[in-house]
């Protein structure tokens, strides 16, 4: 049973330390966590649940990092590889022109060994030219790190160039688990956890809002999960630049990591437990996403009772998560999102990239 003092501390929405967070996890009182996380959510966003009309573009799956955790990437020369050239991107954007109230275009990719930074800048400029009123949410810290290394530039120089071209926000991918022990196993050639944090700190100082994330359910310990969350909380204390937190349950299908360690996807209990616990630990975050593509729609709907206040968006074509075994549809309508939200007694709120509610 949860210690009385700890229970009161959670109910009073006081900040938890590492040991207290670990105790909450180990007690496994899912309903207590849900109630506490829901109170925090409602204290920040009331009865509203947000969603956005967005589309994803994955520019390439050819990658120099070749992380064991990833089912999307392939090596240069692999016949599964693809790369979108500017003409290809323009055709995709032409299809987006029919989407009513499109608010955001989300662009993430693999770390292509040959494409230079100007290619990515040209993509952003093309998107901005086609959709000047649509926000661009593009490039994870792993990609920013790759650009900086290839161009021999600082993170600030890369981010400033992207901002000038039209990037307004950064997604939170690539964080995985910050633990060096874990990263040596799951993504040994990717940037370190400290480098991820440094890039996000730099983005925030430049006025670029970002998301944060954690990928769990592979080879990490519970202690390493909590350490990860506390590091994110500390950076948010420092900069206030994170808009939302997203938890990614690991999909092991078609991955070297999944095969090597005989991993299975985490269940709904663990998904919801980690969401609620993270909402409690990250007391300085206003928004938590229940990313339906990864959680599945039924679990994402349940997540609205466990502290989540955002279902992300309509998405459209998405390749990275589906490569790892997600069976969810690649597209969903605003009507379906609204129905999912209304069914649990909350109020659907269509937003832009900055959590400003749109008047329909």
Q: Could you list some keywords that capture this structure?
A:
three-stranded parallel beta sheet, globular, 10 strands, 360 residues, alpha/beta
Structure overview:
This protein is an alpha/beta fold and 360 residues long. It is built from 16 helices and ten strands. It has helices at 4-11, 18-27, 30-45, 86-96, 117-130, 141-151, 155-165, 180-186, 193-205, 222-239, 256-261, 268-281, 292-295, 297-303, 320-323, 334-343; strands at 48-52, 54-57, 104-107, 135-138, 167-170, 209-216, 242-249, 287-289, 310-313, 347-350. A seven-stranded parallel beta sheet has the order 2-3-4-5-6-7-8. A three-stranded parallel beta sheet has the order 9-1-10, covered by helices on one side. Helix 2 packs across helix 10 (222-239) and helix 6 (141-151) crosses helix 9. The model is unreliable at 318-328 (pLDDT under 50).
Summarize the structure.
The protein is an alpha/beta fold. Helix content is 46%, strand content 13%. The strands form two sheets. Strands 2-3-4-5-6-7-8 form a seven-stranded parallel sheet. A three-stranded parallel sheet has the order 9-1-10, with helices on one face.
The biggest beta sheet, please? Answer: 7 strands, parallel
Total number of beta strands: 10
Biggest sheet, strands in spatial order?
A: 2-3-4-5-6-7-8
Order of helices and strands: HHHEEHEHEHHEHHEHEHHEHHEHHE
Separate helix tally = 16
Low-confidence sequence ranges: 318-328
C-alpha termini separation: 47 Å
């Amino acid at each position: 049973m949860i210690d009385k003092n700890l229970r009161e501390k959670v109910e009073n929405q006081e900040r938890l330390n590492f040991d207290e967070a670990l105790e909450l996890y180990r007690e496994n009182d899912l309903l207590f966590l849900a109630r506490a996380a829901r109170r925090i959510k409602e204290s920040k966003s009331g009865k509203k649940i947000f969603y956005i009309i967005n589309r994803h573009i994955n520019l390439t799956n050819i990658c120099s990092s070749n992380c064991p955790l990833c089912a999307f990437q392939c090596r240069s020369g692999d016949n599964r590889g693809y790369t979108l050239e500017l003409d290809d991107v323009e055709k995709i954007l032409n299809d987006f022109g029919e989407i009513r109230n499109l608010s955001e275009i989300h662009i993430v990719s693999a770390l292509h060994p040959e494409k230079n930074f100007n290619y990515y800048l040209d993509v952003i400029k093309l998107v901005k030219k086609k959709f000047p009123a649509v926000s661009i949410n593009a490039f994870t810290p792993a990609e920013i790190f790759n650009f900086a290394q290839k161009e021999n530039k600082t993170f600030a120089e890369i981010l400033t160039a992207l901002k000038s071209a039209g990037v307004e926000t950064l997604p939170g991918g690539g964080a995985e688990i910050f633990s060096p022990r874990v990263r040596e196993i799951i993504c040994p050639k990717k940037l370190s956890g400290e480098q991820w944090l440094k890039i996000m700190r730099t983005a925030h100082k430049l006025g670029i809002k970002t998301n944060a994330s954690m990928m769990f359910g592979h080879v990490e310990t519970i202690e390493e999960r909590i350490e990860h969350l506390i590091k994110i909380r500390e950076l948010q204390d420092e900069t206030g630049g994170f808009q939302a937190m997203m938890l990614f349950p690991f999909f092991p299908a078609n991955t070297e990591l999944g095969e090597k360690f005989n991993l299975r996807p985490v269940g709904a209990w663990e998904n919801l437990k980690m969401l609620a616990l993270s909402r409690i630990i990250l007391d300085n975050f206003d928004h938590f996403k229940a990313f339906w593509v990864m959680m599945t729609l039924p679990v994402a709907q349940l997540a609205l009772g466990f502290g989540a206040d955002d279902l992300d968006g309509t998405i459209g074509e998405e390749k990275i998560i589906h490569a790892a075994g997600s069976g969810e549809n690649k597209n969903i309508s605003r009507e379906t999102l609204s129905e999912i939200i209304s069914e649990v007694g909350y109020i659907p709120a269509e937003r832009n990239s900055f959590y400003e509610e749109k008047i329909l």
